[in-house]
Design brief:
Layout lengths: L1 E5 L6 H10 L3 E6 L13 E4 L5 H8 L4 E4 L4 H14 L3 E7 L8 H26 L4 E7 L1 E3 L8 E3 L10 E3 H13 L6 E6 L3
Parallel strand pairs: 1-2, 1-4, 2-3, 4-5, 5-6, 6-10, 7-9
Antiparallel strand pairs: 8-10
């Protein structure tokens, strides 16, 4: 697939780039600071810009099969939805947080919302925008991300609350799950809870 990765210089996005190339995809990086990219010669393309800027996103998304937004938010969702509709690009996977829909464990969720309310409200808004966009969207809600070595597997469920996975998830495993999701058309229209394996 031809996949554009937004947030490609971030700690998760870098793993998506590397793993995507290793899987044989034509990966295009979209980043504000593309000079931070490693192994640029392995990429199909590099676009510099802000994902909130519609004109830049329009140019970058043209000719792609799918987009992975390794950073979420309503501003990014808005520009992506518009640009993707205009160019007939339908598949999009956007990152989010398990804390957005979660109600348990009550204390942990309450504390998370206390300190990160503004970010979670914005992620919830982005999720809602995607869900009514008409695109083939998937939302990938992660638990707490770490830079630990990958386990090579994840726990996925489709409930508001985690039902069996570990509360920590390595960014490399999250990137793996994002690529698995974008490759699977049966996951279109679904919000996945992604946790570390037990």
């Amino acid at each position: 697939m031809k996949i554009m990765v937004i947030g490609s210089t971030g700690r998760t996005g870098r793993h998506v780039l590397t793993q995507g190339v290793e899987r044989g995809h034509e990966i295009t990086a979209f980043a504000r600071r593309p000079h931070l990219l490693a192994d640029r010669d392995r990429l199909a393309g590099v676009h510099q810009g802000d994902a909130h800027d519609l004109e830049t996103v329009r140019l970058a998304v043209q000719g792609q099969d799918a987009v992975i937004a390794a950073v979420g938010g309503s501003g990014i969702a808005a520009t992506l939805i518009t640009a993707m509709r205009e160019h007939g690009v339908r598949r999009v996977v956007m990152t989010s947080s398990r804390s957005v829909p979660a109600t348990r464990p009550r204390l942990a969720v309450s504390l998370a919302w206390l300190f990160l309310r503004e970010a979670y409200v914005d992620l919830a808004r982005a999720e809602g925008m995607l869900q009514v966009s008409g695109l083939d969207w998937s939302i990938a809600r992660a638990t707490r991300l770490t830079d630990k070595p990958p386990a090579g597997r994840v726990h996925i469920d489709f409930e508001a609350n985690a039902t069996g996975g570990a509360m920590q998830l390595s960014r490399a495993d999250y990137a793996m799950a994002l690529l698995d999701t974008v490759e699977d058309p049966q996951l279109a229209g679904k919000a996945l809870g992604i946790c570390g394996p037990r």
